[in-house]
Structure to design on (226 residues):
């Protein structure tokens, strides 16, 4: 099982039926997104965020993509004014360097990426952004969910017994479709990566981003400038 399979099946209805913005999303979008230029949204799901941005900022040209075709099919039914496309965030070679004025990487998209591709996803977000462009990220926060310490310990004990690698911050889904994932401790579960704030800030700065603002609750929100 992997995250693509989960979003195309168990989580499809959950994510395609969502609407509106979370409080932190609304705050950051209203503060940093302008009613002009070209914006790209990564991991759009059913289009929830792009639809809200389009309603508020009708002069922005929006490209919104997801790696799950079923999500994009649903999003296209909601608007023909947003360019909904199927892409993988680790390879945006379809777009030239310095194409977009702004980017939105919310809904914790980077945390869903296999660990070996995280750097590639972040470098692609930097490459396609114009000079002085703004990108808004959100990441799963390891410190933001208290149960993570216990969950990580138990999961990794089982990994060691199975002769697998210890991965403190890469954890299986606790819930699927808002129901307890009873296969949580079994082998070959889809996982997500939970970041520490200092960790992800260093990664972003090493890529070349300037950190504009960070906000942490149960998620890590980071606004960057190229």
């Amino acid at each position: 099982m992997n995250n693509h399979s989960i979003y195309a099946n168990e989580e499809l209805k959950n994510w395609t039926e969502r609407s509106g913005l979370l409080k932190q999303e609304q705050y950051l979008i209203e503060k940093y997104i302008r009613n002009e230029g070209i914006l790209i949204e990564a991991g759009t799901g059913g289009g929830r965020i792009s639809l809200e941005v389009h309603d508020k900022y009708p002069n922005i040209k929006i490209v919104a993509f997801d790696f799950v075709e079923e999500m994009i099919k649903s999003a296209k039914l909601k608007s023909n004014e947003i360019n909904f496309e199927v892409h993988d965030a680790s390879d945006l070679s379809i777009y030239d360097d310095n194409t977009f004025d702004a980017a939105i990487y919310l809904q914790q998209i980077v945390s869903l990426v296999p660990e070996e591709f995280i750097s590639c996803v972040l470098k692609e977000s930097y490459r396609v952004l114009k000079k002085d462009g703004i990108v808004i990220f959100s990441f799963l926060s390891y410190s933001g969910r208290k149960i993570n310490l216990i969950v990580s310990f138990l999961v990794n004990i089982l990994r060691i017994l199975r002769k697998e690698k210890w991965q403190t911050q890469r954890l299986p889904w606790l819930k699927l479709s808002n129901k307890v994932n009873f296969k949580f401790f079994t082998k070959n579960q889809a996982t997500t990566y939970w970041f520490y704030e200092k960790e992800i800030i260093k990664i972003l700065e090493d890529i070349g981003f300037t950190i504009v603002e960070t906000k942490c609750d149960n998620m890590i929100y980071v606004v960057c400038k190229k």
